[in-house]
Predict the structure.
Amino acid sequence: MNDDSHKQPFWKTKKLCELSREQWESLCDRCAKCCLLKLDFEDTGERCYTHLVCHYFDENLCQCSCYEDRTIKVPTCVQLMPQNLEAVNFMPATCAYRLLSEGKNLAWWHHLVSGSIETVHEAGVSIRGKTICEDLVDPDDWEEHIVEWVE
């Protein structure tokens, strides 16, 4: 019997619910689009992304500066897990977790494919250089910061 599964990357041979914590975390493509603040409009059911991020977002690293404690420090921050992936409906179309859950492949710029954590930024997929800290904007003005570039 010819078993080529040992030659395949883990995300092609395992279900998301079968991944180790390390494998799960490594799937994050580091785009940080999930860190963008979103506005939900109850009257229309529409969800819009803004280019606003919380004050824990590290613009240079394009990631949360308190990742392990993020849900404690920011109670509205969602910890994505295999168990809640389907319920978390705000992941962008480019998100590795979403792509894999939909049976699609990782993008060429994903670090597990390209071999570099910089390709997500080089491809222009990440939010690096595109954000403003929410502390600098009056919450009544957040609607003025809605963006269309999130896929």
